[in-house]
Amino acid sequence: MIRGWKHFTAAGIAAFVLLGSMSGCSLKSAGGYYNDAMSYYEEKNYTLAAQNFELAIERNPERAEFYIDYGLMLIETGDYEEALATFDKAILDKDIKMVLENNKRAYRGRGIAYFYMLEYEMALEEFDKALEIEELSSLDLDILSYKGSVCEKLGLFREAVSAYDEILRNVDGSADIYMARAYAYLNIGGIQMSRDDYDRALALEPENINIYLGKYALMKLQNDEIGAAAVLSQAERLPVETAEDRLLYAKIQYYQEDESAGELLLSAAEEGSTQAYFYLGEVEREKGNYEQALTYYNAYLEWGNPESSALYNQMAVCGMEIGNYDEALADIQRGLLVSTPEQAKTLRHNEVAIYEKQGDFESACEKAAEFLEDYPEDERMLREYEFLSTRIDTAG
């Protein structure tokens, strides 16, 4: 369902045309409607853009670019299913340069739609189709960037590194790509390569607090407490000018376990940095104020921030601690829908813990067995499964 406007039906378009004729107005060409649609699209007036896209298509249904740009607009309005259907209409099975260029743009659009639908395997398939087309090579770096992100979501970190390598072979340098590759390197055990990429990113953008926070997290994983503290100290000296800067500065205080972090996060939230609610939830969770933490986590979601595995895991932990087991288990399932394979392990560990704390040892044992089918070398879960098996035997 399109949000914010209704489709022009054939009858509706006919009525529109008839009214135009009756008023003495001449009808625009398909190109005229398309140009108007693109102007409205750039102005983010999606209602009028949609109307003009449909009128352009009505007058000339053979123009692939009409469908492609219309599909990109539908992605922005969140109408992903309809965007997919619209891109389909632009794809033709012809070995002609212009057709291949349009196909490439359409496959890219389909990949983006699937990306936002969290259908990462489908997104990867579409991006690969786009990259197989040699025409319109100017799009390749953008598509590779999306492909890298999708591979990370799927836990395919080596493939993500390959995508970022290809980008960096063709550009002088990009702090964002170095940061992304640093994260991918970290997940395949390339600690030093990850650290090198954070340093490359900092050389390009020495005032980007996000890079310092990424490097800080890496050094914490290395148990380099002195180095991690030094990174935060450097970040503290950066200028704080915008609401986003203040949020990032508050995050630094949070990681330093500074008691003023809560106040800084509240100020950031009041200034419109809705991501601050997640960290406010973290502050309260660590204090053991689980109900207040849930209030902040839910506020984070209500402001339209993206769902994440980490968020739902923390909500599940809070629900378990206050005895709201059904909601905690529901949060586990929500988290699994948006998790990478590695993130899913944490969620499924906690799922077993929730059933166990609830006293439902049979369900806990069943979930532990399912976990071990997927991760047979997980020693912690193996010990848990053995313990749960004894509890079921005792109960029997």
Overall description:
Among the domains are: 172-224, Serine Threonine Protein Phosphatase 5, Tetratricopeptide repeat (Alpha Horseshoe); 239-295, Alpha Horseshoe (Serine Threonine Protein Phosphatase 5, Tetratricopeptide repeat); 306-396, Serine Threonine Protein Phosphatase 5, Tetratricopeptide repeat. The termini are far apart. The protein is mainly alpha-helical and 396 residues long. It is globular and about 75 Å long. The protein has helices at 10-22, 30-42, 46-59, 64-76, 80-88, 97-116, 120-132, 140-153, 157-168, 175-186, 191-204, 209-221, 225-236, 243-255, 261-270, 276-287, 290-302, 309-321, 325-337, 341-358, 361-374, 379-395. The longest helix is centred in the N-terminal third of the chain and has 20 residues, at 97-116. The model is unreliable at 1-26 (pLDDT under 50).
Fold topology:
Layout: H1 10-22, H2 30-42, H3 46-59, H4 64-76, H5 80-88, H6 97-116, H7 120-132, H8 140-153, H9 157-168, H10 175-186, H11 191-204, H12 209-221, H13 225-236, H14 243-255, H15 261-270, H16 276-287, H17 290-302, H18 309-321, H19 325-337, H20 341-358, H21 361-374, H22 379-395
Query: According to CATH, what is the class of the domain at 306-396?
Result: Mainly Alpha
Number of strands: 0
Mean pLDDT over the residues: 88
- Global shape: globular
- Specify Rg, calculated over alpha carbons: 26 Å
The secondary-structure class comes to mainly alpha
Would you identify the CATH H-level superfamily of the domain at 306-396? Tetratricopeptide repeat domain
Strand content: under 5%
Helix-strand string: HHHHHHHHHHHHHHHHHHHHHH
CATH hierarchy: architecture of the domain at 306-396: Alpha Horseshoe
Kindly, what is the distance between the CA atoms of the first and last residues, rounded to a whole number of angstroms? 52 Å
Q: Low-confidence segments, ≥5 residues, pLDDT <50?
A: 1-26
Number of helices: 22
What is the third-level CATH name, the topology of the domain at 306-396? Serine Threonine Protein Phosphatase 5, Tetratricopeptide repeat
Most strands sheet: none
